[in-house]
Amino acid sequence: MTFTQRHLLGIEPLHPMEITAILDLAEDYAALNRSDRKHSEALKGLTQINMFFENSTRTQASFELAGKRLGADVMNMAMQTSSVKKGETLIDTALTLNAMHPDLLVVRHPSSGAVNLLAEKVNCAVLNAGDGRHEHPTQALLDALTIRRKKGRLHRLTVAICGDIAHSRVARSNLILLGKMENRVRLVAPPTLMPAGVSEFGCEVFDDMRAGLQDADVVMMLRLQKERMDGGFIPSEREYYHRYGLDAEKLACAKPDAIVMHPGPMNRGVEIDGTIADDINRSVIQEQVEMGVAVRMAAMDLLARNLKAARNAA
């Protein structure tokens, strides 16, 4: 088995060997993206539609660039001005798109499970670009690739995921992936930003950041997702930064060669000190962005191969 999935809806359905298959192919695409040529014909003749029901800069641009570098015909749908605003249901939108015979559908949606519902109604490969608080699989994969490149491995590391765990699909996908690859995962956050049932996640839980970062190999900071908050989850941004913002003093608790990650967009001075974010010796935030294109190229390439094989067999 290398990669047998029809869709990429989450990390949960993936076998560790499938995760490794994506990362290995992404290494090849990372090298291609640093070359003068930068283009492949893996998706030549195929159509990719990007449907983003939530605003996005990094993820949408990354998927668009990935598709174009693989030779696909890429269409970005402006969902904020689409027929959805006129009352069209998600299923009707899916059926309309399906009639256009796309090959790859990239979807970001504010509701958990919406992407899975779409995948049941279309005849193409669907990639989840983030659905509610559920999952963000390509973010976890690009984080995994970044860690593997910097640390030389993706197992038996101590990874501290810090910040707004409760509202973060990035945290959920990373927690699942890192667990599958036999890492020690710590969640660090105030009790108000921990999800319900966190004790069942198979990880360590800390509300003291210095204790949570002790001897960590990787420090993964998360954005405060104010758009998903409907109450007083933190007393103030200033108080939050004092207790949970990553600065040099707190980072000193981690291993001397610990790397610092953030999925973006960053709130400097809230989750992370700007000096730490820009420290080329510790921060891998820009490399995460770079690896995002490579991972999305790899995921779409592998899904397209399975799609072609299924069509040929039919």
Describe the structure.
The protein is built from eleven helices and nine strands. It starts with 15 loop residues before the first helix and ends with a helix. It is of the alpha/beta class and 314 residues long. The chain is 39% helix and 14% strand. α2 links the parallel β1 and β2. The protein is globular and about 55 Å long. α1 crosses α5 and α5 packs across α11. The strands form two sheets. Strands 7-6-5-8-9 form a five-stranded parallel beta sheet. The chain has a four-stranded parallel beta sheet with strand order 2-1-3-4.
Distance between the termini: 21 Å
Q: Report the oligomer.
A: single chain
Number of strands: 9
Task: Give the mean pLDDT.
Answer: 92
Going by helix content, strand content and strand pairing, the class is alpha/beta
Strand content: 5-15%
Q: Spatial order of the strands in the main sheet? A: 7-6-5-8-9
Element-by-element helix/strand order: HEHEHEHEHEHEEHEHHEHH
Total of DSSP H or I helical runs spanning 4+ residues: 11
